[in-house]
Specification:
alpha+beta; two-stranded antiparallel sheet; globular
């Protein structure tokens, strides 16, 4: 699978997650790879394909990741081939729950679905606009922004344009 494997998790008596044992992904993350130089188109297509496989897996379970960005895409090597894997589901939501149900039951400790959560340069317009429902397509928008960043080496929107995005 192109989703990082969670082997174990540990929860305190009061229900707080305090530890996880995950698969070792020893080749760093996509952000580090991009910092080393923009990707060739073929490499970016392979990365996108791997992430799309991960999104297909989680979307089949009605999970919306909501934070697709280069630092949440890890690299590992399997049989001499680089594989990209999706990590960090800390602000994910389950699509089939209502907005209120998610806000009440899936609080991650730092955000709920009501809050604008994600990384601004990779967030879809519906994530930025308060009160607009998000769907599985929000992850596809974010992946498109990641592909742009990977190939061009620059962010899809200038750092000072994030406020303009909100407007």
């Amino acid at each position: 699978s192109n989703v990082c494997t969670l082997h174990e998790h540990h929860v305190s008596a009061d229900g707080q997650l305090f530890g996880m044992i995950m698969e070792l992904l020893e080749k760093g993350n996509l952000a580090q790879r991009i910092e080393a130089g923009s990707m060739r188109e073929f490499e970016a297509v392979q990365m996108a394909f791997d992430v799309l496989l991960a999104l297909e897996c989680i979307h089949d379970m009605a999970v919306i990741h909501r934070d697709i960005k280069p630092s949440n895409i890890m690299l590992t090597e399997v049989d001499g081939r680089l594989i990209y894997k999706l990590i960090d589901f800390s602000i994910s939501v389950i699509e089939r729950m209502s907005r209120d149900e998610v806000s009440q039951t899936l609080c991650t400790g730092t955000t709920t679905l009501r809050a604008g959560a994600g990384t601004p340069h990779f967030m879809s317009p519906e994530q930025i606009k308060e009160g607009v429902d998000i769907s599985l397509q929000t992850d596809l928008w974010s992946l498109g922004a990641v592909i742009f960043r990977a190939i061009s080496g620059v962010l899809p929107f200038a750092p000072n344009e994030t406020d303009k995005l909100k407007i």
